[in-house]
Amino acid sequence: MTGNQQQPAGYARAPVIALVLLLAGGALAAPQPITDLPLQADGERQWRLPAGQYRGSFSIDQPMTLTCAPHAVFQGQGQGNALIIRAPNVQIQGCTFLDWGHDLTAMNAAVFIQPGAQGAVVRANRMQGPGFGIWVDGTRDVSLIDNRIQGDPGLRSQDRGNGIHLYAVHGARVIGNQVRETRDGIYIDTSNGNLIEGNLLEDLRYGVHYMFANDNRLLGNITRRTRTGYALMQSRQLTVIGNRSEQDQNYGILMNYITYSTLRDNVVTDVRDGSTGDTMISGAEGKALFIYNSLFNRIEGNHFERSAVGIHLTAGSEDNRITGNVFAGNQRQVKYVATRLQEWSVDGRGNYWSDYLGWDRNGDGLGDVAYEPNDNVDRLLWLYPQVRLLMNSPGIELLRWVQRAFPVMKSPGVMDSHPLMEAPRQPPLRNSAQEDVS
């Protein structure tokens, strides 16, 4: 364009208008101070938010307790975080959060707790939206109590945020929450020394998901209809006691690179076959307990019932203490393909197996004959699944007869030398969600 050519009307103003609109949009997206809302004083540093719709994103930059009146709603309008907590010693309770942002890369959440917000308490709130429910980022001593978090079932599970996400967090207490239809219920990443207790987690990918998280306690939680109830991965010194997995798919409890941990008094029932989806480990037979490359763990007093596979060990999972457990009504009690003998009794006491056919002549409650769940034919079927077409053929039956007649041909495997004749009672569900955590 030459210097004497005329520009179309409005040409010079277009970039200016675009810049103004961009700045206006940025201003609208910036969080508003919570003090801009019509807060009502309710004591020293205590405020009450009256009923109403509060649109946009808000931030708390000073210690306070904020209690919402019934029908006080933070409406995120589909963008960003509904509420950001930046100051220490902030409590939020009784609020409703709707329709915040869905950008998972930007970590959009109903409540985002920043590193400076140590000691935050988020209690008895209701959240429904597509992104993360509560994101806790690099802080300490946070309490997340009795919240109700609902994801967006209209999105694919991998496109939803997690219900509760802890990243680089220490000393958190996550107690009595209910999470449904998010991606994972509770995700604990690179976070040590936290308590997860008494939560109900339904219709998810993973109910509870640990990654690189040590010295954590997982007590008395319930998962239902997830693709994996409890995904314990790349962690050590976990205490997993009194949890339940009901009607989960693929795995009730999955242990992947777990060491020096305790699993006790957990109940896993009715794990269903299903597709692996985005699960990290292949196999979809419906395993109550899957132990993958995990060592030096105590697995005691658990109930694994009515699933396709009671327990599957693979990839060098050795030196685990497995005793006092109940394996009842599983289509296959044990899947183990390795060459090292594993003894599953400790100090003369083993596990209960519903398909054990031995006897107890001296009445001490222990079987007189060892329980050996697998033989060479089982190993053949696992190594070459196509052989299952011949499962009931005369050839397979002949192989089993030869193995029984000539036990010298038998390869090392799992042995319970002191099986229990009666199943221990199911442990009661832990319920500490009502404890005072103020």
TrEMBL record:
Keywords: Signal. SMART domains: CASH, PbH1. SUPFAM superfamilies: Pectin lyase-like. Residues 37-189, 195-369 form the Carbohydrate-binding/sugar hydrolysis domain. Transmembrane segments: none annotated. Residues 416-438 are annotated as: Disordered. InterPro entries: Carb-bd_sugar_hydrolysis-dom (IPR006633), NosD_copper_fam (IPR026464), NosD_dom (IPR007742), Para_beta_helix_rpt-2 (IPR022441), PbH1 (IPR006626), Pectin_lyas_fold (IPR012334), Pectin_lyase_fold/virulence (IPR011050). Residues 1-29 form the signal peptide. Residues 429-438 have a biased composition (Polar residues). This is Nitrous oxide reductase family maturation protein NosD. It comes from Pseudomonas tehranensis.
